[in-house]
Amino acid sequence: MKFYKSLILFITISVSIVGCRVVKLEPVEILTFQQKLEQLFPNAEITKIGVKDHFTKAFQLVLNEPLDHNNIEAGTFKHYVYLSHTDSKKPMVLITEGYNATPRTYELSKILKSNQVQVEYRFYGKSRPDSIQWNYLKNDQAIEDYHQLVRKLKTLYKSKWISTGISKGGETVLIYKSKYPYDVDVAVPYVAPLINTQEDLRTEEHIKTIGSDECRTKIIKYQRLLLENRANVLTEILKYTKIKGMKFTRLSIEEALEYAVLEFPFSFWQWGGNCDEIPTENATAKDLFDYVNNIVGISFYNDKTYYDLLPSYYQHITELGYYGFDTTPVKDLLRLVHKPTNLRFTPKNVDLTFNPNYIKKVRDYVENQGNKILYIYGEYDTWGACAPNPKPHVNFLKMVLKGGSHKTRIKDFSIEDKQLIYNKLQNWLGYSITIFPLDN
Q1: For a designed S-S bond to 316, which of 35, 48, 322, 384 qualifies (C-beta 3.0 to 4.6 A apart)?
Q2: Angle at 263 (CA atoms; ends 332, 199), nearest 5 degrees
Q3: Is the dihedral of CA 395, 396, 397, 403 positive or negative?
């Protein structure tokens, strides 16, 4: 009996010794946030940049983006993305820029105290190749840029995703939503048009009806004053452009003046011009020029801007559509621009065939199926004439600021309207997401 007790004790002690044996474990690798990004984007250039507002980390990502997502062999271009981080458990706001990107904190990111990823549109700003292959500057290729980026970042950011953008960037929000409706939970396009034709007449009709009769009459008189005082106004333009070092070889300064006069009503309402400030017949030539320069900007027609906006005009003329010009008020005073068109500002020797069905399909989707979209518009904004009008059965919210312009933001609405917006966002995102109201 003692033998068995001793054997059991021996076995128990032996097991205890083995059980206490030190086992060497492989070290657990703890990655920094930047290292996690480098794993996600192994071929990207990733650098830290300055932190703003509520963010704790910020990075510039330069991706080797495929020119053609359907044919990787076509090559790549350098694509700039700006990621601002606060907490992986918080929502992510995706900024679909319509043009170049300058790192800044967007309004929606402040409302949600969220993370933010800001994507420069392909072939704009720093993401512009030395030589543009225009056939790759298509919306579907840009949307694939966003989709692939979101797909990767969702492995880090698993909370709610919200897409937002302004003007052409807002239009991109709607295009993206129509192509990949489940990539984001909520979409918030600001002042976004969906244009019907290459030069949409609805903007001209809008200009003829907004504001007061008195203001619209004053605009026409001012347009005529600019051309009736052509010689003296041109002198002022020459002085200004010489000081600024501007060159006008793509358009002459006189052609630029005529286009600026034709552009004036569109820009005046788009940017919220003040009727009381419009110069009258007592104004000097400098006063006349200064005001059109403030509203339209003569720099809009100089060589640098002409070059910078080539991608924009190409996209508008081939897929997005644009606006036209009404010559009626000044037709008798025009010398050069008798048949004005935005085709004047497009790349040369390039196929500019317009695809009328592209935006039509986007409009059909958002108006009939575009749920959880918050639209922000200004009443007087010329682009508001091209805003989509979703059907009653669609779960959306469209907010139009009375007297508002293209600069309209959520912060500009009344306390009551802002609360309506916050409540809708809360409902769509869920009550686990915190809304931080903007300062009134």
Answers
A1: 322
A2: 95
A3: negative
Can you name the residues that pair with 87 across neighbouring β-strands? none
If we measure between CA atoms, which residue out of 416, 41, 386 comes closest to residue 196? 386
Kind of pairing between the strands at 115-119 and 186-190: unpaired
d(CA 55, CA 231): 53
Q: Which residues of the chain have pLDDT under 50?
A: 1-19
Backbone angles phi, psi at 379, to 5 degrees: -60, -40
Three-state helix/strand/coil letters over 221-238 = HHHHHHHHCHHHHHHHHH
H helices of 229-339, where? Answer: 230-244, 253-270, 285-295, 303-308, 310-315
Q: Which residues pair with 374 in a beta bridge?
A: 397
CA 269/CA 271 separation, integer angstroms: 6
Cβ proximity of 381 and 404 under 8 Å: yes
Domains annotated for the chain, with CATH where assigned, are 33-195+357-429 (3.40.50.1820), 199-345 (no CATH)
With beta carbons less than 8 A apart as the criterion, state whether 61 and 123 touch: no
For CA atoms 45, 46, 51, 52, the dihedral sign is: positive
Q: pLDDT tens across 327-340, in order?
A: 999 999 999 999 99
60 backbone dihedrals φ, ψ, rounded to 5°: -100, 125
> How many residues are given for the chain?
440
Angle among Cα 208, 209, 214 to the nearest 5 degrees reads 85
Among the listed residues 395, 401, 399, the one whose alpha carbon sits nearest the alpha carbon of residue 373: 395
Compute the distance between CA of residue 255 and CA of residue 339 in angstroms, rounded to an integer. Answer: 12
Note the pTM of the prediction, 2 decimals.
0.91
| Angle between helical axes of 253-270 and 213-228 (0-180°, round to 10) | 170
SS3 state at 81: strand
Are 137 and 315 spatial neighbours (Cβ–Cβ below 8 Å)? yes
Instruction: List helix spans (H) across 353-398.
Output: 357-368
Sort residue 316 into left (φ over 0), alpha (ψ -120 to 50) or beta: alpha
Task: Check residue 277 and give its pLDDT.
Answer: 97
Cβ atoms 110, 90 nearer than 8 A: no
- Residue at token pair 């501007």: 246
Q: What is residue 64's three-state secondary structure?
A: strand
Tokens of 387: 């805003």
